[in-house]
Automatic annotation (TrEMBL):
GO molecular function annotation: serine-type endopeptidase activity
Classification lineage: Eukaryota, Viridiplantae, Streptophyta, Embryophyta, Tracheophyta
Domain called Protease Do-like PDZ: residue spans: 413-558
Gene source species: Dioscorea zingiberensis
Domain of life: Eukaryota
Stored Pfam families: PDZ_2, PDZ_3, Trypsin_2
GO biological process, one term: proteolysis
Keywords: Hydrolase, Protease, Serine protease
Skewed-composition ranges (Low complexity): 25-43
Region (Disordered) residue spans: 1-89
This protein's name: Protease Do-like 9
InterPro entries named among the record's database cross-references: DEGP_PDZ, DEGP_PDZ_sf, PDZ, PDZ_sf, Peptidase_S1_PA, Peptidase_S1_PA_chymotrypsin, Peptidase_S1C
Stored Gene3D superfamilies: 2.30.42.10, 3.20.190.20, Trypsin-like serine proteases
Amino acid sequence: MADQKSKRGRPKKPMSNAVDMQVEPSPSVPADPDSPATSSPSSRRTRGRPRKIQRHDLQAEPHSGSLPLLVPGNDQCDAVEPPNPPTSEQVERVLPSMDAVVKVFCVHTEPNFSLPWQRKRQYSSSSSGFIIAGRRVLTNAHSVEHHTQVKLKKRGSDTKYLATVLAIGTDCDIAMLTVNDDEFWEGVSPVEFGPLPALQDAVTVVGYPIGGDTISVTSGVVSRMEILSYVHGSTELLGLQIDAAINSGNSGGPAFNDKGKCVGIAFQSLKNEDVENIGYVIPAPVITHFIHDYAKSGEYTGFPSLGIEWQKMENPDLRKSMGMAPDQKGIRVRRIEPTGPEFQFLKPSDIILSFDGINIANDGTVPFRHGERIAFSYLVSQKYTGENVVIKVLRKSEVLEFNIKLATRRRLIPAHIKGKPPSYYIIAGFVFSAVSVPYLRSEYGKDYEYDAPVKLLDKHLHALAQSPDEQLVVVSQVLVADINIGYEDIVNTQVLAFNGKPVKNLKGLATMVEKCNNEFLQFELEYQQIVVLQTKTAKAATMDILTTHCIPSAMSDDLKT
Protein backbone atom coordinates (compact mmCIF):
# COMPACT_ATOMS: atom_id res chain seq x y z
CA MET A 1 0.00 0.00 0.00
CA ALA A 2 1.06 3.58 -0.42
CA ASP A 3 1.46 4.12 3.30
CA GLN A 4 3.92 1.26 3.57
CA LYS A 5 5.91 2.29 0.52
CA SER A 6 6.57 5.68 2.02
CA LYS A 7 7.97 4.23 5.23
CA ARG A 8 11.09 6.20 5.96
CA GLY A 9 14.42 4.62 6.71
CA ARG A 10 15.77 7.81 8.23
CA PRO A 11 14.92 11.51 8.44
CA LYS A 12 14.87 13.11 5.02
CA LYS A 13 17.49 15.75 4.42
CA PRO A 14 16.73 19.14 2.93
CA MET A 15 17.49 19.78 -0.71
CA SER A 16 20.70 17.98 -1.57
CA ASN A 17 23.74 19.80 -2.80
CA ALA A 18 23.69 17.84 -6.04
CA VAL A 19 21.34 19.22 -8.66
CA ASP A 20 20.69 17.24 -11.81
CA MET A 21 21.54 19.12 -14.96
CA GLN A 22 19.68 16.76 -17.24
CA VAL A 23 16.69 17.93 -19.21
CA GLU A 24 14.63 14.85 -19.88
CA PRO A 25 11.27 13.94 -21.34
CA SER A 26 10.96 10.98 -19.04
CA PRO A 27 11.60 10.65 -15.29
CA SER A 28 13.14 7.28 -15.93
CA VAL A 29 16.73 8.45 -16.20
CA PRO A 30 18.49 7.85 -12.88
CA ALA A 31 19.51 11.20 -11.55
CA ASP A 32 20.69 10.53 -8.04
CA PRO A 33 23.94 8.97 -6.88
CA ASP A 34 23.49 5.30 -6.12
CA SER A 35 26.70 4.77 -4.25
CA PRO A 36 25.91 2.18 -1.63
CA ALA A 37 29.50 1.33 -0.83
CA THR A 38 30.32 3.66 1.99
CA SER A 39 32.01 3.29 5.34
CA SER A 40 32.01 4.35 8.95
CA PRO A 41 34.84 6.62 10.07
CA SER A 42 36.97 3.53 10.52
CA SER A 43 36.12 1.87 7.25
CA ARG A 44 36.50 2.56 3.54
CA ARG A 45 33.60 0.29 2.59
CA THR A 46 30.81 1.39 4.92
CA ARG A 47 31.56 5.06 5.07
CA GLY A 48 28.50 7.16 6.00
CA ARG A 49 26.87 8.89 3.06
CA PRO A 50 29.57 11.03 1.40
CA ARG A 51 29.03 14.37 -0.20
CA LYS A 52 26.63 13.79 -3.06
CA ILE A 53 28.21 14.13 -6.47
CA GLN A 54 25.77 14.41 -9.31
CA ARG A 55 26.54 12.39 -12.38
CA HIS A 56 26.68 14.69 -15.37
CA ASP A 57 23.79 13.01 -17.11
CA LEU A 58 22.75 12.92 -20.71
CA GLN A 59 21.35 15.95 -22.42
CA ALA A 60 17.84 14.99 -23.50
CA GLU A 61 16.76 15.90 -26.99
CA PRO A 62 14.20 18.71 -27.12
CA HIS A 63 10.87 17.57 -28.53
CA SER A 64 8.99 19.15 -31.43
CA GLY A 65 11.65 21.80 -31.86
CA SER A 66 10.90 23.32 -28.46
CA LEU A 67 13.60 24.73 -26.24
CA PRO A 68 14.91 22.53 -23.40
CA LEU A 69 13.20 22.98 -20.08
CA LEU A 70 15.27 25.15 -17.77
CA VAL A 71 15.65 23.60 -14.34
CA PRO A 72 16.66 25.78 -11.36
CA GLY A 73 20.40 25.55 -10.80
CA ASN A 74 20.66 23.83 -14.14
CA ASP A 75 20.03 26.22 -16.96
CA GLN A 76 22.45 27.85 -19.27
CA CYS A 77 22.38 31.04 -17.19
CA ASP A 78 23.69 29.15 -14.16
CA ALA A 79 26.50 27.45 -16.05
CA VAL A 80 29.40 29.69 -15.07
CA GLU A 81 32.14 29.69 -17.63
CA PRO A 82 35.77 29.80 -16.54
CA PRO A 83 37.19 33.30 -16.32
CA ASN A 84 39.81 32.68 -18.98
CA PRO A 85 38.78 31.36 -22.42
CA PRO A 86 41.08 28.90 -24.23
CA THR A 87 44.20 30.58 -25.58
CA SER A 88 44.92 30.50 -29.31
CA GLU A 89 47.90 28.21 -28.63
CA GLN A 90 45.69 25.72 -26.78
CA VAL A 91 43.11 25.72 -29.54
CA GLU A 92 45.77 25.21 -32.24
CA ARG A 93 47.20 22.17 -30.43
CA VAL A 94 43.78 20.63 -29.84
CA LEU A 95 42.41 21.50 -33.29
CA PRO A 96 43.70 18.37 -35.11
CA SER A 97 42.04 16.13 -32.50
CA MET A 98 38.70 17.96 -32.55
CA ASP A 99 37.66 16.23 -35.79
CA ALA A 100 37.72 12.93 -33.87
CA VAL A 101 35.08 14.18 -31.41
CA VAL A 102 31.59 12.95 -32.35
CA LYS A 103 28.05 13.58 -31.18
CA VAL A 104 26.26 10.52 -29.81
CA PHE A 105 22.51 10.14 -30.31
CA CYS A 106 20.86 7.38 -28.32
CA VAL A 107 17.32 6.06 -27.91
CA HIS A 108 16.85 4.41 -24.51
CA THR A 109 14.18 1.99 -23.34
CA GLU A 110 14.59 1.34 -19.63
CA PRO A 111 13.15 -1.61 -17.72
CA ASN A 112 10.28 -0.91 -15.36
CA PHE A 113 11.47 -2.41 -12.09
CA SER A 114 8.16 -1.82 -10.34
CA LEU A 115 6.27 -3.58 -13.18
CA PRO A 116 9.06 -5.89 -14.38
CA TRP A 117 7.03 -7.52 -17.17
CA GLN A 118 7.10 -4.29 -19.19
CA ARG A 119 9.42 -1.43 -20.14
CA LYS A 120 9.12 2.33 -19.75
CA ARG A 121 8.40 4.76 -22.56
CA GLN A 122 11.45 5.28 -24.76
CA TYR A 123 13.30 8.60 -24.74
CA SER A 124 16.18 10.17 -26.67
CA SER A 125 19.40 11.76 -25.51
CA SER A 126 22.55 13.24 -26.95
CA SER A 127 26.08 13.24 -25.57
CA SER A 128 29.68 13.24 -26.78
CA GLY A 129 32.29 10.68 -27.76
CA PHE A 130 35.60 10.40 -29.59
CA ILE A 131 37.34 8.10 -32.04
CA ILE A 132 40.31 5.98 -30.94
CA ALA A 133 42.53 3.52 -32.78
CA GLY A 134 41.09 0.27 -34.09
CA ARG A 135 37.87 1.77 -35.55
CA ARG A 136 36.39 2.28 -32.11
CA VAL A 137 34.60 5.12 -30.33
CA LEU A 138 34.57 5.82 -26.59
CA THR A 139 31.77 7.52 -24.67
CA ASN A 140 30.19 7.24 -21.20
CA ALA A 141 28.33 4.11 -20.15
CA HIS A 142 25.39 6.17 -18.92
CA SER A 143 25.17 7.76 -22.37
CA VAL A 144 24.14 4.44 -23.96
CA GLU A 145 22.59 2.63 -20.99
CA HIS A 146 19.50 0.56 -21.95
CA HIS A 147 20.04 1.57 -25.57
CA THR A 148 17.80 0.43 -28.40
CA GLN A 149 19.54 2.51 -31.07
CA VAL A 150 22.80 4.49 -31.13
CA LYS A 151 23.87 6.87 -33.90
CA LEU A 152 27.02 8.96 -34.31
CA LYS A 153 27.60 12.21 -36.18
CA LYS A 154 31.02 13.60 -37.00
CA ARG A 155 31.97 17.24 -36.73
CA GLY A 156 30.81 19.17 -39.78
CA SER A 157 28.83 16.23 -41.16
CA ASP A 158 25.09 16.02 -41.83
CA THR A 159 25.01 12.21 -41.70
CA LYS A 160 24.20 10.07 -38.68
CA TYR A 161 25.80 6.62 -38.74
CA LEU A 162 24.34 3.60 -36.95
CA ALA A 163 26.68 2.36 -34.22
CA THR A 164 27.10 -0.96 -32.45
CA VAL A 165 27.83 -1.12 -28.72
CA LEU A 166 30.81 -3.43 -28.18
CA ALA A 167 31.20 -3.15 -24.42
CA ILE A 168 29.76 -1.23 -21.49
CA GLY A 169 31.85 -0.74 -18.35
CA THR A 170 29.26 0.19 -15.78
CA ASP A 171 31.70 0.52 -12.88
CA CYS A 172 34.06 2.90 -14.72
CA ASP A 173 31.27 4.63 -16.73
CA ILE A 174 32.89 3.96 -20.12
CA ALA A 175 31.35 2.40 -23.23
CA MET A 176 33.00 1.28 -26.48
CA LEU A 177 31.22 1.59 -29.83
CA THR A 178 31.99 0.88 -33.46
CA VAL A 179 30.49 1.77 -36.85
CA ASN A 180 30.34 -0.72 -39.74
CA ASP A 181 30.11 1.94 -42.45
CA ASP A 182 33.63 2.56 -43.85
CA GLU A 183 32.69 6.12 -44.82
CA PHE A 184 32.50 7.08 -41.14
CA TRP A 185 36.21 6.43 -40.62
CA GLU A 186 37.45 8.34 -43.66
CA GLY A 187 39.54 11.43 -43.07
CA VAL A 188 39.66 11.12 -39.27
CA SER A 189 42.79 10.61 -37.18
CA PRO A 190 42.15 8.73 -33.92
CA VAL A 191 42.76 10.41 -30.59
CA GLU A 192 45.98 9.49 -28.79
CA PHE A 193 46.25 9.21 -25.02
CA GLY A 194 48.69 11.22 -22.97
CA PRO A 195 50.23 10.68 -19.51
CA LEU A 196 48.50 11.36 -16.22
CA PRO A 197 48.57 15.16 -15.82
CA ALA A 198 50.04 16.99 -12.86
CA LEU A 199 48.19 19.47 -10.70
CA GLN A 200 47.63 22.83 -12.42
CA ASP A 201 48.24 21.31 -15.86
CA ALA A 202 46.00 22.92 -18.49
CA VAL A 203 43.11 20.83 -19.86
CA THR A 204 40.64 21.53 -22.66
CA VAL A 205 37.25 19.79 -22.63
CA VAL A 206 35.66 19.26 -26.06
CA GLY A 207 32.10 18.06 -26.66
CA TYR A 208 28.53 18.87 -27.63
CA PRO A 209 26.91 20.31 -24.47
CA ILE A 210 23.52 21.91 -24.06
CA GLY A 211 23.12 25.39 -25.52
CA GLY A 212 23.84 24.66 -29.18
CA ASP A 213 24.40 22.04 -31.86
CA THR A 214 28.02 22.69 -32.78
CA ILE A 215 31.16 21.59 -30.99
CA SER A 216 32.10 23.41 -27.78
CA VAL A 217 35.50 23.98 -26.18
CA THR A 218 36.11 24.96 -22.55
CA SER A 219 39.42 25.14 -20.72
CA GLY A 220 40.73 24.93 -17.19
CA VAL A 221 43.35 23.24 -15.06
CA VAL A 222 43.63 20.02 -13.06
CA SER A 223 42.81 21.07 -9.51
CA ARG A 224 42.74 17.70 -7.71
CA MET A 225 43.52 14.04 -8.27
CA GLU A 226 42.25 11.33 -5.94
CA ILE A 227 40.08 8.25 -5.57
CA LEU A 228 36.52 9.50 -6.02
CA SER A 229 33.03 8.10 -6.19
CA TYR A 230 31.84 7.18 -9.68
CA VAL A 231 28.14 7.94 -9.35
CA HIS A 232 26.90 5.78 -12.23
CA GLY A 233 28.89 2.71 -11.26
CA SER A 234 28.73 3.04 -7.45
CA THR A 235 32.48 2.45 -7.37
CA GLU A 236 35.57 4.32 -6.23
CA LEU A 237 38.31 4.78 -8.81
CA LEU A 238 40.98 7.32 -9.67
CA GLY A 239 39.51 10.58 -10.96
CA LEU A 240 40.56 14.09 -11.95
CA GLN A 241 38.84 17.23 -10.70
CA ILE A 242 39.04 20.15 -13.11
CA ASP A 243 37.67 23.68 -13.15
CA ALA A 244 36.65 23.68 -16.82
CA ALA A 245 32.90 24.02 -17.36
CA ILE A 246 31.25 20.62 -17.92
CA ASN A 247 27.61 20.92 -18.89
CA SER A 248 24.86 18.51 -19.83
CA GLY A 249 25.81 16.81 -23.09
CA ASN A 250 29.56 16.98 -22.40
CA SER A 251 29.35 13.42 -21.07
CA GLY A 252 31.75 11.17 -22.98
CA GLY A 253 33.75 14.04 -24.49
CA PRO A 254 37.56 14.02 -24.27
CA ALA A 255 39.74 16.27 -22.14
CA PHE A 256 43.00 17.21 -23.91
CA ASN A 257 46.28 18.42 -22.48
CA ASP A 258 48.24 21.31 -23.98
CA LYS A 259 49.89 18.92 -26.46
CA GLY A 260 46.60 17.70 -27.91
CA LYS A 261 46.73 14.30 -26.18
CA CYS A 262 43.65 12.91 -24.42
CA VAL A 263 44.05 12.75 -20.64
CA GLY A 264 40.47 11.80 -19.74
CA ILE A 265 36.74 11.62 -20.41
CA ALA A 266 34.27 14.12 -18.94
CA PHE A 267 31.59 12.26 -16.99
CA GLN A 268 30.15 14.04 -13.93
CA SER A 269 30.09 17.37 -12.10
CA LEU A 270 29.35 18.76 -8.68
CA LYS A 271 26.40 21.14 -8.45
CA ASN A 272 26.10 23.22 -5.31
CA GLU A 273 25.26 26.82 -4.52
CA ASP A 274 28.62 27.14 -2.77
CA VAL A 275 30.80 25.86 -5.62
CA GLU A 276 31.44 26.78 -9.24
CA ASN A 277 33.02 24.87 -12.12
CA ILE A 278 33.83 21.60 -10.39
CA GLY A 279 33.88 18.91 -13.04
CA TYR A 280 35.24 15.38 -12.98
CA VAL A 281 37.17 13.47 -15.63
CA ILE A 282 37.91 9.75 -15.98
CA PRO A 283 41.74 9.67 -16.25
CA ALA A 284 43.73 7.86 -18.92
CA PRO A 285 44.84 4.94 -16.66
CA VAL A 286 41.20 3.98 -16.04
CA ILE A 287 40.43 4.32 -19.77
CA THR A 288 43.37 2.16 -20.86
CA HIS A 289 42.44 -0.44 -18.22
CA PHE A 290 38.97 -0.64 -19.78
CA ILE A 291 40.40 -0.94 -23.32
CA HIS A 292 42.97 -3.59 -22.41
CA ASP A 293 40.42 -5.56 -20.39
CA TYR A 294 38.15 -5.76 -23.43
CA ALA A 295 41.07 -6.61 -25.75
CA LYS A 296 42.22 -9.50 -23.52
CA SER A 297 38.98 -11.50 -23.57
CA GLY A 298 36.64 -9.85 -26.08
CA GLU A 299 34.37 -8.71 -23.27
CA TYR A 300 34.53 -6.37 -20.31
CA THR A 301 35.17 -8.13 -16.99
CA GLY A 302 35.35 -5.12 -14.68
CA PHE A 303 37.70 -3.74 -12.05
CA PRO A 304 38.65 -6.19 -9.29
CA SER A 305 38.29 -5.47 -5.58
CA LEU A 306 40.02 -6.84 -2.50
CA GLY A 307 36.72 -7.92 -0.92
CA ILE A 308 37.34 -6.65 2.60
CA GLU A 309 36.18 -3.95 4.97
CA TRP A 310 39.02 -2.38 6.90
CA GLN A 311 39.89 -0.08 9.77
CA LYS A 312 42.62 2.53 10.12
CA MET A 313 45.42 1.80 12.59
CA GLU A 314 46.30 5.37 13.55
CA ASN A 315 45.74 4.87 17.28
CA PRO A 316 48.98 3.82 19.04
CA ASP A 317 47.15 1.76 21.68
CA LEU A 318 45.30 -0.15 18.96
CA ARG A 319 48.57 -0.89 17.15
CA LYS A 320 50.20 -2.07 20.37
CA SER A 321 47.27 -4.37 21.22
CA MET A 322 47.58 -5.97 17.78
CA GLY A 323 51.24 -6.76 18.35
CA MET A 324 52.58 -4.30 15.78
CA ALA A 325 56.22 -3.26 16.03
CA PRO A 326 57.00 0.48 16.06
CA ASP A 327 58.22 0.32 12.45
CA GLN A 328 55.20 -1.64 11.19
CA LYS A 329 52.26 0.07 9.51
CA GLY A 330 49.08 -1.25 8.00
CA ILE A 331 45.30 -1.58 8.23
CA ARG A 332 43.10 -3.96 10.20
CA VAL A 333 40.71 -6.32 8.41
CA ARG A 334 37.18 -5.94 9.80
CA ARG A 335 35.14 -8.25 7.55
CA ILE A 336 35.84 -10.41 4.51
CA GLU A 337 33.28 -11.04 1.79
CA PRO A 338 32.37 -14.75 1.90
CA THR A 339 32.06 -14.86 -1.90
CA GLY A 340 35.56 -13.47 -2.52
CA PRO A 341 38.76 -15.50 -2.91
CA GLU A 342 40.24 -13.55 0.01
CA PHE A 343 37.86 -15.39 2.35
CA GLN A 344 40.05 -18.50 2.11
CA PHE A 345 43.18 -16.68 3.27
CA LEU A 346 42.42 -13.62 5.37
CA LYS A 347 40.83 -13.51 8.82
CA PRO A 348 39.22 -10.71 10.84
CA SER A 349 41.82 -8.66 12.77
CA ASP A 350 44.59 -9.50 10.31
CA ILE A 351 46.82 -6.47 9.71
CA ILE A 352 47.55 -5.95 6.02
CA LEU A 353 51.10 -4.59 5.84
CA SER A 354 51.63 -4.44 2.08
CA PHE A 355 49.95 -5.04 -1.27
CA ASP A 356 52.15 -6.49 -4.01
CA GLY A 357 55.29 -5.24 -2.28
CA ILE A 358 54.05 -1.69 -1.62
CA ASN A 359 53.71 -0.81 2.07
CA ILE A 360 50.36 0.51 3.28
CA ALA A 361 50.28 3.32 5.85
CA ASN A 362 48.14 3.31 8.98
CA ASP A 363 45.60 5.56 7.26
CA GLY A 364 45.24 3.19 4.30
CA THR A 365 47.26 5.24 1.81
CA VAL A 366 50.28 4.45 -0.35
CA PRO A 367 52.85 6.69 -2.10
CA PHE A 368 51.51 8.04 -5.39
CA ARG A 369 53.71 10.75 -6.90
CA HIS A 370 56.16 13.23 -5.45
CA GLY A 371 54.48 14.85 -2.47
CA GLU A 372 51.25 12.89 -2.97
CA ARG A 373 49.61 9.86 -1.37
CA ILE A 374 46.51 7.97 -2.48
CA ALA A 375 44.17 5.31 -1.09
CA PHE A 376 45.61 1.82 -1.52
CA SER A 377 42.50 0.78 -3.47
CA TYR A 378 44.25 2.53 -6.39
CA LEU A 379 46.74 -0.36 -6.45
CA VAL A 380 43.88 -2.86 -6.60
CA SER A 381 42.20 -1.00 -9.46
CA GLN A 382 45.40 -1.17 -11.51
CA LYS A 383 45.12 -4.97 -11.60
CA TYR A 384 42.87 -7.08 -13.82
CA THR A 385 40.28 -9.64 -12.80
CA GLY A 386 41.97 -13.01 -12.34
CA GLU A 387 45.45 -11.59 -11.64
CA ASN A 388 47.39 -12.84 -8.62
CA VAL A 389 48.78 -10.46 -6.00
CA VAL A 390 50.96 -10.97 -2.94
CA ILE A 391 49.48 -9.66 0.30
CA LYS A 392 51.61 -9.50 3.45
CA VAL A 393 49.69 -9.65 6.73
CA LEU A 394 50.48 -9.62 10.45
CA ARG A 395 48.52 -12.27 12.36
CA LYS A 396 49.17 -12.78 16.08
CA SER A 397 52.62 -11.16 15.78
CA GLU A 398 53.54 -13.45 12.88
CA VAL A 399 54.13 -12.08 9.36
CA LEU A 400 52.46 -14.15 6.64
CA GLU A 401 52.31 -13.84 2.85
CA PHE A 402 49.40 -14.96 0.69
CA ASN A 403 49.12 -15.21 -3.08
CA ILE A 404 45.52 -14.24 -3.84
CA LYS A 405 43.64 -14.15 -7.15
CA LEU A 406 41.61 -10.96 -7.49
CA ALA A 407 37.94 -11.00 -8.46
CA THR A 408 35.16 -8.50 -8.99
CA ARG A 409 32.93 -7.67 -6.06
CA ARG A 410 29.67 -9.56 -5.57
CA ARG A 411 27.02 -7.41 -3.85
CA LEU A 412 23.92 -8.79 -2.17
CA ILE A 413 21.99 -5.82 -3.57
CA PRO A 414 23.69 -5.09 -6.93
CA ALA A 415 24.11 -1.53 -8.16
CA HIS A 416 23.20 -2.55 -11.72
CA ILE A 417 21.70 -5.52 -13.54
CA LYS A 418 23.95 -4.90 -16.57
CA GLY A 419 21.30 -4.46 -19.23
CA LYS A 420 19.33 -7.59 -18.41
CA PRO A 421 15.58 -7.35 -17.81
CA PRO A 422 14.56 -7.60 -14.14
CA SER A 423 13.45 -10.98 -12.80
CA TYR A 424 10.01 -11.60 -11.31
CA TYR A 425 7.69 -14.42 -10.29
CA ILE A 426 3.92 -14.23 -9.72
CA ILE A 427 1.70 -16.66 -7.83
CA ALA A 428 -1.88 -15.86 -6.73
CA GLY A 429 -1.24 -12.15 -7.32
CA PHE A 430 1.92 -12.03 -5.18
CA VAL A 431 4.70 -10.39 -7.21
CA PHE A 432 8.14 -11.56 -6.06
CA SER A 433 11.23 -9.61 -7.14
CA ALA A 434 14.96 -9.54 -6.42
CA VAL A 435 16.12 -6.26 -4.87
CA SER A 436 18.68 -4.10 -6.70
CA VAL A 437 19.58 -0.42 -6.53
CA PRO A 438 17.54 0.36 -9.68
CA TYR A 439 14.61 -1.41 -8.02
CA LEU A 440 14.93 0.74 -4.88
CA ARG A 441 15.15 3.86 -7.01
CA SER A 442 12.04 2.82 -8.95
CA GLU A 443 10.08 2.18 -5.76
CA TYR A 444 11.22 5.11 -3.60
CA GLY A 445 12.62 7.68 -6.01
CA LYS A 446 16.06 9.26 -6.13
CA ASP A 447 16.05 9.74 -2.35
CA TYR A 448 15.65 6.01 -1.75
CA GLU A 449 18.51 6.12 0.77
CA TYR A 450 16.17 8.07 3.07
CA ASP A 451 12.73 6.81 2.07
CA ALA A 452 13.22 3.04 1.79
CA PRO A 453 12.47 0.82 4.82
CA VAL A 454 15.26 0.65 7.38
CA LYS A 455 15.75 -3.10 7.02
CA LEU A 456 16.26 -2.85 3.27
CA LEU A 457 18.70 0.03 3.70
CA ASP A 458 20.66 -1.87 6.33
CA LYS A 459 21.07 -4.83 3.98
CA HIS A 460 21.90 -2.49 1.13
CA LEU A 461 24.69 -0.79 3.06
CA HIS A 462 26.07 -3.56 5.26
CA ALA A 463 24.90 -7.07 4.32
CA LEU A 464 27.33 -9.42 2.56
CA ALA A 465 26.26 -12.14 0.14
CA GLN A 466 26.99 -15.58 1.59
CA SER A 467 27.07 -17.29 -1.82
CA PRO A 468 27.54 -16.11 -5.44
CA ASP A 469 23.88 -16.71 -6.35
CA GLU A 470 22.28 -15.25 -3.21
CA GLN A 471 19.58 -12.60 -3.74
CA LEU A 472 17.34 -10.54 -1.49
CA VAL A 473 13.81 -11.63 -2.48
CA VAL A 474 10.81 -9.48 -1.56
CA VAL A 475 7.07 -9.41 -2.09
CA SER A 476 7.09 -6.34 -4.33
CA GLN A 477 3.31 -5.91 -4.35
CA VAL A 478 0.07 -7.87 -4.27
CA LEU A 479 -2.20 -7.73 -7.32
CA VAL A 480 -5.52 -7.72 -5.52
CA ALA A 481 -7.86 -10.67 -6.13
CA ASP A 482 -10.25 -12.80 -4.08
CA ILE A 483 -7.53 -15.39 -3.44
CA ASN A 484 -5.25 -12.94 -1.60
CA ILE A 485 -7.81 -11.05 0.50
CA GLY A 486 -6.27 -9.74 3.72
CA TYR A 487 -2.74 -9.64 2.26
CA GLU A 488 -3.16 -6.47 0.19
CA ASP A 489 -0.99 -4.30 2.43
CA ILE A 490 2.19 -6.38 2.02
CA VAL A 491 4.70 -4.28 0.10
CA ASN A 492 8.49 -4.73 -0.29
CA THR A 493 8.73 -7.24 2.53
CA GLN A 494 11.54 -9.80 2.45
CA VAL A 495 10.72 -13.48 1.97
CA LEU A 496 12.76 -15.56 4.41
CA ALA A 497 11.45 -19.09 3.85
CA PHE A 498 8.92 -21.16 1.92
CA ASN A 499 7.29 -24.18 3.61
CA GLY A 500 10.11 -24.16 6.15
CA LYS A 501 12.95 -24.02 3.60
CA PRO A 502 15.15 -20.89 3.40
CA VAL A 503 14.79 -18.77 0.27
CA LYS A 504 18.21 -18.30 -1.30
CA ASN A 505 17.23 -16.54 -4.51
CA LEU A 506 14.25 -15.84 -6.74
CA LYS A 507 14.80 -18.82 -9.03
CA GLY A 508 14.97 -21.15 -6.04
CA LEU A 509 11.69 -19.76 -4.71
CA ALA A 510 9.94 -20.14 -8.08
CA THR A 511 11.17 -23.73 -8.41
CA MET A 512 9.96 -24.67 -4.92
CA VAL A 513 6.51 -23.14 -5.49
CA GLU A 514 6.06 -24.73 -8.93
CA LYS A 515 7.00 -28.18 -7.64
CA CYS A 516 5.03 -27.92 -4.39
CA ASN A 517 2.45 -30.69 -3.85
CA ASN A 518 1.58 -29.78 -0.27
CA GLU A 519 -1.94 -28.69 0.58
CA PHE A 520 -0.78 -25.18 1.45
CA LEU A 521 1.80 -22.69 0.26
CA GLN A 522 3.34 -20.97 3.29
CA PHE A 523 5.64 -18.00 2.87
CA GLU A 524 7.55 -16.78 5.92
CA LEU A 525 8.25 -13.04 5.72
CA GLU A 526 10.25 -10.67 7.87
CA TYR A 527 8.59 -9.09 10.93
CA GLN A 528 7.28 -12.61 11.72
CA GLN A 529 4.54 -12.38 9.07
CA ILE A 530 3.31 -15.47 7.26
CA VAL A 531 1.25 -15.87 4.09
CA VAL A 532 -0.71 -19.08 3.67
CA LEU A 533 -2.53 -20.02 0.46
CA GLN A 534 -4.18 -23.24 -0.64
CA THR A 535 -1.89 -24.69 -3.30
CA LYS A 536 -4.48 -25.85 -5.82
CA THR A 537 -6.61 -22.68 -5.57
CA ALA A 538 -3.58 -20.34 -5.73
CA LYS A 539 -2.18 -21.91 -8.88
CA ALA A 540 -5.58 -21.91 -10.56
CA ALA A 541 -6.16 -18.22 -9.75
CA THR A 542 -2.82 -17.10 -11.12
CA MET A 543 -3.82 -17.30 -14.80
CA ASP A 544 -6.93 -15.14 -14.31
CA ILE A 545 -4.88 -12.53 -12.45
CA LEU A 546 -2.32 -12.44 -15.28
CA THR A 547 -5.09 -11.95 -17.83
CA THR A 548 -6.69 -9.15 -15.80
CA HIS A 549 -3.40 -7.21 -15.60
CA CYS A 550 -2.25 -8.01 -19.17
CA ILE A 551 0.84 -9.83 -17.91
CA PRO A 552 2.25 -12.22 -20.54
CA SER A 553 3.85 -14.74 -18.18
CA ALA A 554 3.90 -15.70 -14.52
CA MET A 555 7.71 -15.54 -14.48
CA SER A 556 10.53 -13.81 -16.31
CA ASP A 557 12.38 -15.69 -19.03
CA ASP A 558 15.53 -16.23 -16.94
CA LEU A 559 13.51 -18.26 -14.40
CA LYS A 560 12.14 -20.61 -17.06
CA THR A 561 15.49 -22.20 -17.90
